Amino acid sequence: MKRTILIITILFIAVISTACINNFAVQELNNKAQVYLNNGDYESAIDRLEASIDLDNTIFETHYNLGVAYIKSERYSEAIKTLSKAIEINKENADSYYSLAVAQESYANEMLELNENNSVASKSDDDSEEIDEPSNKKIDDTAIKMTPEQRKIAAIELYTSAISSYKKYLEIDGKAKDAEDIKNQIKSLEEELRELGQQV
Questions:
Q1: Angle, to 10 degrees, between the axis of helix 148-172 and the axis of helix 94-116?
Q2: Who's near 148: CB < 8 A, 6+ residues apart?
Q3: pLDDT tens column, 59-118
Q4: Alpha carbon distance, N-terminus to C-terminus of the chain
Q5: Separation CA 86–CA 49 (nearest Å)
Q6: 54 phi, psi to nearest 5 deg
Q7: Which residue of 5, 53, 70, 159 has the fewest C-beta atoms within 10 A of its own C-beta?
Q8: Angle in degrees, CA 83, 87, 92, rounded to 5
Q9: Bridge partner residues of 120 (DSSP)
Q10: Residues 129, 122: contact at Cβ < 8 Å?
Q11: pLDDT digits (tens, 9 = 90+) for 160-183
Q12: Cβ neighbours of residue 19 under 8 Å, at least 6 residues apart?
């Protein structure tokens, strides 16, 4: 009996020690990531935040900060996934919805930009499309592989989602200082949808 109690005590101490070490490591990674974010080194921040999530996938702030870093790095599809996870963890954080809306809108703009700038090369003999990627901008692989019509449909869905996210932001933060700007942005996106042939 004493031996069983001793084994259980040792296992309990081991579990608590591991949890404390993980919490310390997560906090350390998040602190380093914040320094990188503040200094504009988004890729280093992303590396630290992804490592932090590998250790503990339940911390809202880690997902939120990673989503913001992805936006700053123009990695919009990854930002959307990460910010959606942040919202899953904490549905009442207004800034998450705002950042999600920015990512959705930016990704839609990127899709339409590919179409508008005639960056779709003429089809080659094997009917596969090639994109001339602008050298100064990162382009999402998913967007590149889409046809122009698929990108248009995706952009419409993203704009619609961005409008919903902006509205949720305003709903949660009833006293938002930028409320008028956000309302104007919603109107602008609704106009964009009308130009794309959608009824709003």
A1: 160
A2: 114, 115, 120
A3: 999 999 999 999 999 999 999 999 999 999 999 999 999 999 999 999 999 999 988 764
A4: 71
A5: 13
A6: -60, -35
A7: 5
A8: 135
A9: 131
A10: no
A11: 999 999 999 999 998 999 999 999
A12: none
Amino acid at the residue 35: V
Question: Computed over its alpha carbons, how large is the radius of gyration of the chain?
Answer: 22
Both structure tokens of 159: 């704009």
| HEC assignment per residue over 54-102 | HHCCCCHHHHHHHHHHHHHCCCHHHHHHHHHHHHHHCCCCHHHHHHHHH
Nearest to 188 by CA among 200, 174, 175, 177: 200
All residues at 6 or more sequence positions from 53 whose CB lies less than 8 Å from its CB, including other chains: 59, 62, 63, 66
Q: What size, in residues, is the chain? A: 200
pLDDT in tens, 109-156: 999 998 876 444 434 434 444 444 443 456 778 888 899 999 999 999
* Amino acid in the structure at residue 16: I
Of 102, 66, 69, 96, whose CA–CA distance to 82 is shortest? 66
CB distance 106 to 71 below 8 Å: yes
